[in-house]
Fold each of these.
Amino acid sequence: MSEKIVSIITINYNGLKDTCEFIDSLIEYETFPYELIVVDNASENDEAGKLQSTYPEIRVICSEKNIGFAGGNNLGYCHASGFYILYMNNDMIVKAPFLKPLVDRLKVSTAGIVSPKIKYSYASDIIQYAGYTPMTSITIRNRAIGVREKDIGQYDRAEKTAFAHGACMLTTKSVIEKAGKMTEIYFLFYEELDWCLQISRAGYTVWYEPASTVYHKESMTIERGSPARCYYLTRSRLLFARRNNFRISKLLSCFYQVMIVLPKNMLYYSFHMRWEMMTAIWRGTKRGLLDKCL
């Protein structure tokens, strides 16, 4: 294990074009020592083989089935040789070196995980992430700080924050060994939020580091407004509530999701005759209540 190397882990699932653009930007701009591990989550058309032949210097790890965000990242972690572990979406672009400030931030006392400033790739002066507010225990809601604001330097100070951003987050092997790997119960959504709580409970702090900036295409792996996205968001929100709330808060949160959020969304989609979305919400609610959350 090298304490001077960052192991960058990214997941490819039928996203060859985005993954290649991501790798090309790393090759062009990043100067800090790193290794790149691409976990292919059972993509079609031999995308894993194409990546390995195009970029022989990277490691491509193949999963026989799609094991989701946490599963893919955990698989990549098993093959990492660096002390620093960076989980980064394949729909990201870098336009300048960004690793060193993140590494330096993790050298600060209790810092356990850090994310950079994230902007939209289609509007490079607009912020997507400059930290997160805490999660409300009952409604399971929070927000990204600075989202869709023009970047005029208002978030250029490093701060402790509630959560790292799953699209780009750096930690270390020692933190993972103490706090544990990401839970794989979600498949999609809420994994990084849950993991940040794990890391916080292990005694570490979560940081936002604006000295680094990356650019996000956003939601390339699952279409916005799709039944699949709706299903996983609904399911994962309930699993998160069950895993991270206790006693009366857990009951109140589940009650809120089932008795307020579910009817409201069902009414909305019935009015717009989106029957497939109604089915997705109903299935997501059922599985969120019944699936194992530990």
Amino acid sequence: MIGKVFAGIVTAGVLAGVLATGAMAAPAATAAANPAKTQRPEAKDVFGGTVTAISATQLTVKNAKAGSKTFLRTDATVVVKGRNDKATWSEIEINSHVRVRFEERDGKLYAKRVHIGRAHVAGKVESVNGNVITIRTRDGKDVKLTVNGSTKYFEITGKHQRKAGSLTDIKAGMRLVAAGSYDSSHNFDAALVAYRNN
């Protein structure tokens, strides 16, 4: 169910449209900025998904349709975020969305360029207490979402349709997706909260 909610939210363009950064927004932004340039020939050497593991030397990315791939870091690996702002390998987080441009040599995949997007979490609302929304993810983990005055809320009303929402709309039992980043205590700072009110 959460997967369907997330798929619906992505289809509606909320995460890609509202967040000007992130792997999901990158292809559209690139296409818009360079209408004459096509990325079709490179598609087989680009892999996008969610970071499931990272170390100083390698990165594992999971894609819902294509499974997981592990990429090795080299001295030439470039890391960027947002609109191609320079970033570092240490800024890649578990649950971040990334798009990896890679090359295959001797049966191994080497990362040439990693584009960092926003991390996201999806789940069922357990409680709302002040500026903290506690959700339970599909794998049974409780995650505390911290919201603030700059957090944006969107209610998905239909395919490609959304309307502005607010924290007061969020109720226990509702399913939602949030985009943002984890802090040092592994709480989630939510920049965007998208939900269906049904």
Amino acid sequence: MTDRSTNDGSTTDGSTAASIREICSRALRGLQTLVPQRFRRDRPIVPVVRLTGIVGFSTPLRPGLTLATIARTLDRAFALGHAAAVALVINSPGGSAVQSHLIFRRIRQLAEQHNRRVIGFIEDAGASGGYMIACAADEIVADQHSIVGSIGVVGGSFGFDKLIARLGVERRLYTSGEHKAMLDPFLPENPDDVDRLKKLQREIHDDFIALVKSRRAGKLAGPQDELFSGAYWTGRRALELGLVDAIGDLRSVLRERFGDEVVTHLVSAERGWLGRRLLGAGTREAAQFGLVEDVISALEARAIWARYGL
């Protein structure tokens, strides 16, 4: 383009084009601020998924941490196309071995499908099934005081046979299978049933150990009889044993890794219409039933957390 000179010797076309470019640039920058941060590509973004509570522990009004309750949230987090990584914030004392493994598998499937690095952050506890879920991460970060480990299997019950005998209650139970009433709390304990249960627990424990060895290959530093004894440690000791990779917190680690401008986008669970209706309105009977369920659940949950002094 050839600039045209004015009578005083200045140019017009060049300066006008420069002004237009500057105006357009300012307009684009202004429009960019209106775009939600999770859709902007000028800053690194890390979707964050919180995995909190007892695994598989649910009531009708308070769903627990299961694959069914977390699957869509995980899908949305990993589907964010320009994410630098996916962060899992884990705060769980464990629970169902099945649900822990299902969540672990889904995280690994999504990570491989989307070629996404996963960073796990343990808060108060990543114990038992909670630690199994943490092993789905490519890197595990814990607070120095986090409870980590408890790589084992536990089961428990009560025995009421002496109590009902004292009360003069007669237990009547009809089954069509030899082991159908195994470990019935109202019958005397059968040593054969206990042995059968322990075999099941050993099988699950062996699978848990194999999973940890696979995911933490080359990192485990402690003796196996200690690591896989069901014991648990603070985050600082867990780092020495190779159960975690670093001591830190979500904000500090992500800023160190991806810069101060990193955006942490919390991907929360979606509540369906039915769930909103149940929580928002209902009969007195339904509300009372829900309250009783929640009280019982709270007591049982408190007992599980109390194992770790939390």
Amino acid sequence: MRVYRVTAVAGFVCAVLLVVNSARRAGLVPENAFTHAIAPFAALTGLLAITGIYLLIRGSAGGLGLAGYVLNAAGLAGAFAIEYILHFVFPYLGGGTVSALLAGGTGRAFLVTSVVLVTGVLTFGAAAIRSGALPVAAVALYAVGMIPGSLRNLMPLPVYLGGLVLAAVGVAWMAVRLWSADDEPVTAVGTRPVRPGA
């Protein structure tokens, strides 16, 4: 299994986890140890997926693509850390302690992570669309969905959850493109020859 297919699988897993997380928050899936344990891995598998997407578009995405990838990756890494804290640290602290942390430096760090993620998603999305290597609608769904999906504490719950589902559709759609990319011949970094008769 080559790199695009590995990252495509990560994209499919990310999409499933985003939908499961949304369903759990909406009360459609039970809250239990398993659903909490898998929750943070949506961000981690998303990080792997956008790495594959960046490798696919890097030849035509230029500096904007690199900047978007770095910011998007940093935001997703931060989101993984936040989800880990929310599911595996905060439940074992008293409510007063959690409130104090969120009112101080921890809350500011969460906000900075959200801003970095939104900035990265929008920049990376613009570069991905400009590259022409991915379906525009897939990239748009990812970008539009991740805006409320990144701002969980600033959005009404239905908007936040709806954003995660839209992002999941976009990620899955881009993962389909990643999966098929391994069937295309590559001549050099970022370049792909036209197939005979194409």
